[in-house]
Structures are given as structure tokens and as C-alpha cells.
Amino acid sequence: MTALQQKTTPQNKQAYLLRNEEGECYIINKQVIKILADAASTGNLFSLVQITGSKGEASPLHVHDQQHESIYVIDGLLELTINNEIHTLASGDYAHLPAGTVHQYKTLRNRTRFYSFSTDGSMADMYRNIAEPYAYTVPHSEAADSITAAALHDLDHDYRIVTDPPQGLIAAKQITAAELPDAAVPYVVESGAGESMLAADQLFTFLATQATTDKKYLAVMTEGYAGEAVPVHHHEKHTECFLCLEGKMTMWADGEEFHLEKGDFLHVPAHIEHSFRLDVHHTKFIGFLASGLFEKFFRLLGEPYEHSELPKTPGAFSFQRVLENIHELDLKLS
What we know:
The chain is mostly beta strands. It has helices at residues 39-42, 122-130, 149-154, 210-213, 295-301, 320-324; strands at 5-6, 16-18, 24-28, 31-37, 46-53, 62-63, 69-75, 77-82, 85-90, 94-97, 103-107, 112-119, 132-134, 160-161, 170-171, 187-189, 195-199, 202-208, 218-224, 233-234, 239-246, 249-253, 256-260, 265-268, 274-278, 283-290, 303-305, 332-333. The protein is built from six helices and 28 strands.
């Protein structure tokens, strides 16, 4: 185990690594919530949890008045009500839920699993308050106690139960092309869709931008062939985290080297030197960056790209536009 590797989220803002099999887990009914990031470990920037549910598990219909939320499905099938629309999300699909969005999820397959990212970090503490500590990452056969709507109302968290269900529910279409809204409105992106930029053998796909998050964060998918490490660098004004979804990658952070595989999570706050390398073809990870000020970097590094697959023969890598505009970017090369 490296010095950065942890069993649970640390109690202060720092760089840390959580392996897929590690993490603080809680259970509600037949849902297991694993905490990957919280207010303490991110400096009140965001929380990140993994939720695994048996078939038929559901959240209450609710709304966050202040927090934005992003949902990314890993396994199974998730029904998501967003205002008066019903979406069905499969593996690789993404949902964007800005503050004020009435929503509810329901698991349609056994062991449906998804990540929930939310701003300010307090959601992780809410789960600690309402759920029972649990030793495993999947639910058992006997349902644990669930919290009542009245008890949720009494908690000091941005989670307001909606008692009047939306009227006129309709099946909704997903975004299937390279376009995202230009405002903080709810939307769903089909796996492989989103706004993409190609930089040689790496494909960056925006799932959330500054415009859709009120500049609070970015959600960017990175996929690529095995290749060279990116230059060692650090940021002064934003946090970056890496959540490996497929393949294998090597990370360097704060002077340490380690290897990430599916489900491993690395949190890198500002001022921590870091780098990464994709080690096998079609390695994929999702990055959450808070705030969203680093968006221009990806647009300078890559070119707009209309496909969801990598090119057969990647072009040459060029860092020239980044270097020419580096004074405008939160990027310090080592």
C-alpha cells in the first residue's frame, strides 16, 4: 500500500487513492452506498458515492435546492424520473440534474450500480446520517431499515422530499449527438454521445461543461490507446479526480506511482503534481474537475470530433496551442 492509498476517505483535503474494494459503505433497505469523496476530503467542493441496488430499489421523489448532481451508470438498468420525463439509463449513460430538478431513481435490474457526484460535499454526510454501516459493496438478501420521508425532512441537508408527483409523465429522448445544452438544465446523454475533442490517440468527451454546471465543475470522459505519459503538472485553482472505468492506467501523484484499474479512484487537489499514462488499449476514465475553469484546456488540446470511436490511425500529438495560451490556463508544468 502506498502512502496515498486509503481504506476510507481522509478527514482533511489531500491527495488520496481508494481501490475498488475499499471505501466506507452504508446500507438502506437493499441499496449499498459507498463513499468515495465527501466534504472533508474535498474541502467542501463535492461528494462522490457509488450506489448499488437490488431490483426494484428506489429513492424518494426529491429535489436539491442548491446542489447540482451528475449520475453515471456502470451496470444494470436505471429508471430516472426528471421533472415530468421518464428516462431509462443503461451502462455508460449519463444524467445531469441541476439544482431545482425534481427527480427519482429506480433500479430495474439486480445489482444496478451507478455513481452520483454532487456539489458541496454534504450528500455523503447525509448517507452517513440515514443509513447503517455495512461491510460489503453489494446488498444482502434481508432488507435493512429504510428512513421515512418525515425523518429526511428533519435532516439538515439539501434533500427536499416532493410530495406531489409530477403530472403527465412522458418517455424522454436522450442526447445521442455531439451537443450539450448551453445552460444549467437537466439532460441525459447516451453512452458514447456528448461533445468530443480528439487529441492524437486520446478522445475527450464533455458530459458536463461550465455552462451546464454554473461553472462549478466539469465531467469529462477520457478514452484512448496505450501511449505515453502526459507531462507532469499541477493546478493552482481546481481539484481533479480520476475514476477508472475500463482498462489499466498508471498514475503519478505527489511523488508516488501506482496503477489504476476498474473502480479505482484518485483524488488530486490543487498544488499536487500529477501525471497519467494509459497502459492498455481502450482504457477509459471519467474525470470530475471542480471548479469548471479548466474547460478551455481540452478545447485547445483537441479538435472537434464527430465519432464515438477512436480513429484507426491517430494523428500526431500537438501541445502548441496549449503552450501559446498557457497564461490563460490553470496549468503549471513541472
